[in-house]
Design goal:
Blueprint lengths: L2 E5 L2 E3 L5 E8 L8 E6 L6 E6 L6 E3 L7 E6 L4 E6 L8 E7 L3 E2 L3 E5 L2
Parallel strand pairs: 2-11
Antiparallel strand pairs: 1-3, 3-8, 4-5, 4-9, 5-6, 7-8, 9-10, 9-11
Length: about 110
């Protein structure tokens, strides 16, 4: 059974940091491109960051470049999203995705003073 479980969300002040984790099971994690998406209320999910299978290739949405870092640990079946210098507009539900079809349940990130 494929599972992706996110954690690490919460409430943080503007300028603060959070690290999201997504632990996977039920499939060959190391063979999958991994992505983080976010979703604002009433909007479609948007791609935030992606990482290739060996972790050496990454990409980011323009809105988070220079602030967010994506990484993976294939030995732990885990992908991370380090979010620094958070802004109010980063408030959203964050989802991890493996390949084309495997999604986590999401974790809420709220940036507010």
């Amino acid at each position: 059974q494929v599972q992706l479980v996110e954690s690490g969300g919460g409430l943080v002040q503007p300028g603060g940091s959070l690290r999201l984790s997504c632990v996977a099971s039920g499939f060959d994690f190391s063979r999958y491109v991994l992505m983080w998406y976010r979703q604002y209320p009433g909007k479609e999910r948007e791609l935030v960051a992606g990482i290739n299978t060996n972790g050496r290739g990454t990409s980011f949405a323009d809105s988070v470049k220079g602030r967010f870092i994506i990484s993976r640990d294939n030995s732990k079946n885990t992908v991370y999203l380090q979010m620094n210098n958070l802004k109010v507009e980063d408030t959203a539900v964050y989802y991890c995705k493996a390949g084309a079809a495997h999604w986590g349940q999401g974790t809420q990130v709220t940036v507010s003073s």
